Structures are given as structure tokens and as C-alpha cells.
Amino acid sequence: MTQLKLVEGTDEYRIAGLAMKVRSELGFSMLESAYERALILELNKAGYTAERQVPILIFYDGRELNHGYCADIVVDRKIILELKAVTRLYAIHRRQLQFYLSAGKIDSGLLINFGNYQKLECERMQRADACKNSRLGVNPNGIFRPLTEDEKKNPHESFAERIARIVEMD
After folding, report:
1. Could you report the per-residue pLDDT of 65-78, keeping only the tens digit for each?
2. b/e for 44-75, b at 16 or more Cβ within 10 A?
3. What is the extent of the structural domain holding 30?
4. Which among 32, 144, 148, 159 is least surrounded, fewest beta carbons within 10 Å?
5. Based on the structure, what is the number of domains in the chain?
């Protein structure tokens, strides 16, 4: 796994700053979903397009598997944010983000832990070179399908909220 330092002036650096703002406002004892919603608000205020709970598409034998993998937040369709609210980060958390980067064919991600009582933990990762050509049974185009016009108008809506809205329209 390739972990990198945050570089001042980059989107990752700015996003880490927004996460720090959320952490300082909410503290360390909330559920992950509270941090997710607050960070989405901050990302949108900062001019980013942030999507919540983006499904990671996995295929087997030419068929999409319904398995439940979702990236917590995808920013501008180029950075995956994997959020945690745990006392400390473990290797399994890093492997999860690395899998999402590989499956989504996205090069950059941040593993952000709001649950450490001392500080916000934020680790920048890049898709490992060994995974760039991995087949992993994923969609060759990555995790995204084109956004609909409604999704473009409301980019902070979660996947579950999109489904609920679509069902209500029927």
C-alpha cells in the first residue's frame, strides 16, 4: 500500500482541512454517518462535487454482483474518502481503501478517522501500481455511470436517497 504525505495546495490537502473543521466542530464521539453528512456539506460549500455512498461495481462471469460495497464519499469523481469513527486505524482499513481505489480505477484517496480522541487521523493513499491493471472482477470503466440531470442538480444525495426518490416517482 502506498501512503503519501499531504501536499499543501492540493485538493487532498484542502479536503483534509475541511475534515479538521468537521472534527473540531463535532468532536470524536459521533457516528461515522454524522461526520459523512457534515463533510459533504463542507465539501459542497468549498465548491467540490461530492457523492455519498457510491456503489463499487463488482462483476463475476459477466454479471454484476449485488454485494453492498460503497465508497463513503467520492470527490469530483477523482478522490475517494473512506471515513472511520474508530479509536485507531488498522491495516484492514487501509486495505479497504486500496481495494476501492483499485476497483474504482481512481488514483487518489484519503482514509480519515474522526474517532481518535486525541486528533483527526488522515492518511493519503494512491492506487498501488500492482493494482492498476488488476482485473479484480470490476467494471472496466471503474465505478461510475454517467450522472443523470437530477443527480447533477443534487450531487450530495446518497445512493440510498437516489433510490428512494426514484421509487417515489413511480
Report:
1. 777 788 999 999 89
2. eeeebebbbbbbbbbeeeeeeeeeebbbbbbb
3. 2-169
4. 148
5. 1
